[in-house]
User: Fold this.
Amino acid sequence: MTSPEPSPSSPSSPEGTSLATKVRENVALFGEYRRGERGRAYLDGVFAELDEYPAVLERLGAKPLSESEVLEIGFGARPYRLAALLRQGVDATGVDMEVPVLTGSVAEFRRMYATNGAERTAKSLVRHLLFDRGQRRDFEGRAVERGWVGPVDPTRFVVSDAAELDVADGSIDLLLSEDVFEHIEVGALRRLVAQMRGWLRPDGLALIRPNVFTGITGGHLIEWDDLAPAERRSEPWEHLRAQRFAPNSYLNGLRLADYRELFAEHFEIVEERVKRPDLGLEYLTDDIRAELAAYDEHELLANQVLFALRPRPA
Assistant:
């Protein structure tokens, strides 16, 4: 791969994030939750993805969701995507290293503290107490409108390293992952991708959408996400330029070519689609183009990219 693996002091590593930066980002984040912006936007994105999957499966001649055994890699602290699949009656399971908030019980937060530490527990607890009820009502309303009223089995939310998951070879029809692969260390990602090929049936499909590091949102700074404020402390593509601010999560720094190389070893890349073409184009001035001449324009504007992958014969 062409991209170096970030060192512990890199802006792409959470260890390089100061306490002041963490506090500032969390304050901004909770401000957006308080106004309801982030919760609505997150659910908008989840339901848009759920609408997108059936069309992709049909276009590529894969099994429909209703007939598929599905595994989601990285369901996240708010696992609405997996919950919605289960509500539809899809045979779906998910895996994530972080304990999700499913019921908000004391036992759940104790498990979160033991597994993921104090910082993650505190953030999840504050969000749960102040904002989750409204977002869950919104989710429930949208699901019911679509007729998705099936049960959500909590045992389908597996807390584990995906690479250590016990999955029978050739047992999965569809692998899904959204905005996760950019957070996995490169060596672990290589091992995971190799295992994914084994997990899939020969006619199975993997739909993997990382947020590519070179995009304007690839640095994972709150102020450059889809709800970016009018005033910012950082510059466009800060993570590729001055690197004055660090994200509050690990990033592996992979570029589009790196993902293509990584996937091509075990999969045929049957489709590659940018979720929002030209995202950030208005900020790509002539001066910034010159400064970022090492990157072509496509990879600077390709943020979330959906790779549709078919397993190569072993």
The CA atoms of residues 26 and 123 lie 8 Å apart. The two ends are 22 Å apart (CA to CA). The mean pLDDT is 89. Residues 14-311 form a domain with the Rossmann fold fold (CATH 3.40.50.150).
